[in-house]
Amino acid sequence: MKKNLSAVAVLVLLATMLVLTACPPHESLAAVNRDPGRYQGREITVGGRVTESVGALGFGFFKLDDGTGTLWVYSQNFGTPAQGSKVGVVGRLDVQGLSLMGHTYGLILRETQRRHGSY
Length: 119
Hints:
CATH 2.40.50.140, five-stranded mixed β-barrel, globular
């Protein structure tokens, strides 16, 4: 009985480690806005409340606010969530636009996966 319990515990631990290593890191929007070059081209997870949303035919843009900052998200295959919705997003950061006096204008996260849960 103890062997079976130990084997189950090891399997659960291995499965948990596998799931955690497969998830992109969750970042605050303040950190992303502060140093966008660090995140450019990498897959990251962000979450927050949708403050603006524009879309049609399954694609569009929405602005995400996590309380530390904001970021525009481009959604091509997942639709655009309604204003006020809480969502989590996995995506790749594109740095477009310009940097001026420590602020980068034109950051866009290209959504690759929608996450559900509390953000």
